[in-house]
Design a protein that fits this description.
Order of helices and strands: EHEHEHEHEHEHHHE
Number of helices: 8
Radius of gyration: 17 Å
Helix content: 40-55%
Oligomer: single chain
Number of strands: 7
CATH topology: Rossmann fold
Shape: globular
Strand content: 5-15%
Distance between the termini: 30 Å
Structural class: alpha/beta
CATH superfamily: NAD(P)-binding Rossmann-like Domain
Length: about 250
């Protein structure tokens, strides 16, 4: 797929992997739709536009059906088409099954899994027309359990299975569906979580120790994987691990 002039929607584009992906695709000539729950992706959108690229900001909660539909409607209203959907929005709430609240379990599933379902549901008819591609953000924890992340791990395993089901469902429509599976990535979200530990410096070292390459990933490296999955037309139902060797 030639990315130039293609229209990509990126949910959760206000920081980290979503922001890096928006910037990378814009640099490659794509028209970028940046979504976030807050107004954080508005700043990203404005920065992209200041560089002379095409971008649109849509504030929406992907776990709410009308919000998800509005992302798609707003994109089509401005750009007339959708070529790529990167379902990146997600949350991480710590806890084992006996410590996480039912409310936090449901919230995790609503954002991380239901959000992908809803945005994809309204995007798929347009992606069929363009023979487009969906990339879902799963995680290395879909392959390897980690402590104190029961809901998050379950949600990312569900994303991986959903990706394969979607790839099978839309193969005949020539819509490709793939998953990116990042390891621990140095993002503002991670930094906020580290600050919740009694010893943030030790916690960072512990997170780094999980990566066999001895460092955290950076958002640009994950974005490059998303770009590969969008461009490579012989790839569907795939799970691309970019995790510093975490799952070896």
């Amino acid at each position: 797929m030639d990315i130039k002039d293609k229209v990509i929607i990126i949910t959760g584009a206000g920081a980290g992997i979503g922001k890096a992906t928006a910037e990378l695709f814009a640099e490659n000539g794509a028209k970028v739709v940046c979504n976030s729950l807050s107004k954080s992706a508005l700043k990203v959108t404005n920065q992209i536009k200041e560089k002379g690229f095409n971008a649109l900001f849509v504030q929406a909660d992907v776990s709410k059906e009308e919000n998800a539909k509005n992302i798609i409607d707003s994109t089509v209203q401005l750009f007339g088409r959708i070529d790529i959907l990167f379902n990146n929005a997600g949350i991480v709430i710590p806890g084992a099954i006996d410590t996480i609240s039912t409310e936090d379990w449901d919230r995790t599933m609503n954002v991380n899994v239901k959000g992908i379902y809803l945005v994809s549901k309204y995007a798929i008819s347009y992606l069929k027309k363009t023979k487009g591609v969906i990339i879902n953000n799963s995680s290395s924890v879909a392959f390897k359990g980690v402590k104190d992340r029961a809901a998050y791990t379950a949600s990312k395993g569900a994303v991986l299975s959903l990706t394969r089901a979607m790839a099978a469902d839309y193969m005949e429509d020539k819509v490709r569906v793939n998953a990116i599976c990042p390891g621990t990535t140095d993002t503002p979200s991670l930094e906020r979580r580290l600050q919740q530990f009694s010893n943030p410096e030790k916690a960072r070292k512990d997170f780094i120790a999980r990566q066999k390459m001895g460092r955290l990933g950076n958002p640009r490296e994950i974005a490059q994987g998303v770009l590969f999955l969008a461009k490579n037309e012989f790839t569907t139902g795939a799970s691309l691990s970019i995790d510093g060797g975490m799952t070896i």
